[in-house]
Design brief:
single chain, N-terminal domain of TfIIb, 2 domains, seven-stranded mixed beta sheet, 11 strands, globular, binds S-adenosylmethionine
Length: 243
């Protein structure tokens, strides 16, 4: 599978209606983020169509987003009303904005869409440069689960209906921590393919990337309600501070 910064979004023109793929956590996420920088400035890496940025702006923050896909950015422009949200087209590994921010956040495993360790390190370093002193970087991601795979692959069923099914097929490269994923919506009148290439990081690897960029982890919980993170947690929200 080839990678470019627009690929994910351009293959998902129906992103806002992909209920089966979305997290439906906008309310909790925007509340959590707003409490970290009340009335402040925020930057979202991979803003998409504004699923969380728009409710966050309604909570009083000024939000800028970086987005690689013109279709996603157009979706955001359609969704935005009075909210103070603006989008910059570019690669979020570069964090191509001039301003500094009280908060930078990257949610829904979007960080994993950077395809190499180098680009992920670059992203965290550029993020640290765009944070005000004392500013916070928030990442929401899953804990990789090797039990999912049988050998170097997995196939799974996400949904089954009367006239449709959603299945996923993955190929896993353990050494590169990279997964090629194809989610397929099967319907009587045709199938739709949603490809994705991602490179996962372990929670400890993200901590190390942050440390190398001069950021200190202040918390890691298993969700937006500050639930404790344990060895059994499948996902997390990590918060790093620029000292
Ligand atoms: C999983 S979606 C999440 C969108 C939004 N944050 C949300 O939670 O609904 C990932 C987003 O990141 C964008 N994206 C992926 N790689 C990117 C890159 N290298 N630079 C900028 N945007 C990128 C995709 O186009 C997509 O809009």
């Amino acid at each position: 599978m080839d990678y470019d910064i627009a690929a994910y979004g351009e293959r998902r023109p129906d992103y806002d209606s992909m209920d089966w793929a979305l997290r439906h956590d906008e309310d909790e996420a925007s509340r959590f983020l707003a409490e970290l920088a009340p009335g402040g400035t925020a930057l979202e890496l991979g803003i998409g169509t504004g699923r969380v940025a728009l409710p966050l702006a309604r909570r009083g923050l000024k939000v800028v987003g970086v987005e690689g896909s013109p279709s996603m950015a157009a979706g955001l422009e359609r969704n935005v009303g009075d909210e103070d949200v603006e989008v910059v087209i570019g690669d979020f590994a570069d964090v191509p904005v001039e301003a500094t921010f009280d908060l930078v956040y990257c949610i829904s495993e979007t960080f994993f869409l950077l395809p190499t360790q180098d680009s992920q390190i670059r992203c965290v370093q550029n993020t640290a440069e765009r944070l005000a002193d004392g500013g916070l970087f928030v990442v929401q991601a899953i804990v990789p689960d090797h039990d999912l795979y049988c050998g170097k692959q997995s196939t799974g069923t996400r949904q089954v209906g009367e006239q449709s099914a959603i299945i996923s097929a993955r190929r896993h490269d353990r050494a590169e921590q990279r997964v090629e994923l194809q989610s397929i919506v099967l319907k009587e009148n045709g199938n739709t393919f949603y490809p994705m290439l991602y490179r996962y990081v372990w929670p400890s690897e993200l901590d190390l990337m942050a440390k190398l960029a001069g950021l200190t982890r202040v918390s890691r919980s298993s969700g937006w309600r500050n639930e404790p993170f344990t060895a059994a947690s499948g996902e997390y929200v990590a918060v790093y501070r620029k000292n």
